[in-house]
# Entry
Amino acid sequence: MVNIDLWAKDGYLSTPNGNSIYFWGFAKGENLPAQLPGPHIIVKHGETVTVNLTNTLPEPVSISFPGQAEVTVNGSPVEPQYVNGRLLSFVNYATPNGGTVSYTFTASYPGTYIYESGTNPHKQVAMGLYGGLVIRPTDYEVSKTAYGAGTDTEFDREYLLIVGEIDPDLHQAVEEGKPYLVSKYLPRYWTMNGRCAPDTMFKDGVEYLPHQPYDSMIMAEPGEKVLLRYIGAGIDIHPLHPHGNHTRVIAMDGRLLRNNTFDRSFQRFTVAVKPGQTYDQIFQWTGLGYTPDNPIPTILPNLRNMGIGAAGWTMWSGSPYLGVKGDIPVGVVSFNETGEYYFMLHSHSEYQITNWGEFPGGMMTMISIFPSLPEDVGVLK
Amino acid sequence: MAVVRKRYGATDGWINMPDGTKHYIFGFCDITGVPENEIFEYRGKATLLAPLLEAYEGDEVYLTLTNLGFPERPDLDDTHTIHWHGFPNQIPLWDGVPEASISVPVARDFEYYYKPLDPGTYMYHCHFEPVEHIQMGMIGPLIVRPLIEKDPDYSGRKFAYNNISTEYDREVLIFLTELDARVHDLIVNVQGFDWTEYSPQYYLLNGRSYPDTVKSADNPNLPFQPFSSLITAYRGERVLLRFVNLGFQDHNIQILGINLKVVGRDAKELQGFHGEDISYLTNTVFIAPGQTIDAIFTASSPGKYPLYNRSHHKNTINGTTFGGMVTEINIL
# Structure
């Protein structure tokens, strides 16, 4: 039996270009900030999960759990809610300004899922009322897998990336109580875990992003198996492309791509993340084996003749070799710590890697490969 | 294993659409073997698509990028890179991401090195301000051929992957992009563009809009768009279509009258974790930006078969005339 308390609240998001955007989100506590995405819910296969929602917003709010069967409220199955014969909500809701509702379900299959508002979702999900749900296999502590022993889903570190879009006109209209035409939806920001690049690469819980607590920096050692859980929380398709290697897609929508012993997993260098869907993947960067003792077959040019840090900063070490720092030209700030490698992970609908049209930004982060990392890096909490 | 040495220039140029409009592009051109005192003559001669880069599995590819500058925009001293999209286990030095390694300023060279180990269809593009440089045309196709073709037992035969079920007789590239003319007009006039307003009017196969797509590769009216999309084969031949999407939109490409067998995606044969065969039959391929698809069909009866975008508004020239992402398959 797991009890999760969520509050539906409002707040303001920060964007890297200095904008402040009103939003609705789920919070972990009555006195804690609304957040985008909502708090991760992490439970175990077979557990009975109760999610208690308190709604502080001025209209009804609910939570739907796509992929979960037999969700109940007060012992009865959730059901669509109508007002004067018109659909208001896919599931039972909490009434405005302090109402509550409790949803109960059994986590019946491991995997990655979304939870989101089922009430006026065309408005409320776009406003930010969504989050990620992870169900671990019963043998997780022993097998360290996404889907249980024998499913070839072992991993060393794991990261959850929830992607979405923001049309600031919608948010402003909701804040000011004005009408908004969803048919005119035109995103100006694209988010990973609620942030736009380069904020995606700042650490978890930085104090200047109180409503956007989750970072998107992927960190691993060479050869490690990295479990990437993608969730599409917006209404558009986002083709996410990691540099450095393909991913093997092992599951979609919380269902292992395997029929008995017949494995249907597949490798991609770009995964089209579709609305409301989830993708579990294993990424591994193994490298080409170059070291100072096994040098690269090309000559590193004089770096003062090359373009390095056009924006005044770089994430490069100045060396071709992992764990080695070279000389970065004077005047360029390097954010490289120990000679780690950085590989971009971004939407290949390239206008989505801008902040209101300005590159760089949007749905972009980095995968960083470090010579060594502490064990507590890349643990989903 | 062979050594492949190439030198590409980065510069600008102009392309033609069937409605008589011309559009300013950035792009690459092949200057391999051109004497140093003559490379200047290639300024302004970028092509759409950029030259096909091909190699065999295990080859060593040395690719030098020379930034020739933009004669039409001498004020714009952007650097450039080459990103081999999908190359596994790359190191940042040769990955072409300016924020994570090196880019190439005007009048400088940089040498990239690749030893491809996985056959299939890839793409390459500049990764400097990629939203601008990709839309402007710094994009090209990339094919890695499988070692099985060098096995004496299969001499003279062609395969998509190291698997005899992927044998083919002819191959055709279907490289999908869009062109928003407002971007190209603004950039040649030294103006910026709000990329969130991206809304293309031209939809291109191999850098051309139908009916230019079915014209020959060396058509004199399309000097800087050297890729035809006309598919011609004899009855009974196996034809490999190599789909690439390097636009910013999803595309759903359909063929009327012919079924495809999809054998590879993103330069990986369609196989499960233990080598399970997960290839499939279809007449429509959904392809997102940054993906590639290898599909084979056998032409069973003579005739003309259209290939088009099932999102029919993309089969137009500037929203008016029938055109855009359309080509023909002629079975003789």
About this structure: Chain A touches chain B through 63 residues (CB under 8 Å). The radius of gyration of chain A is 22 Å. DSSP finds three helices and 29 strands in chain A.
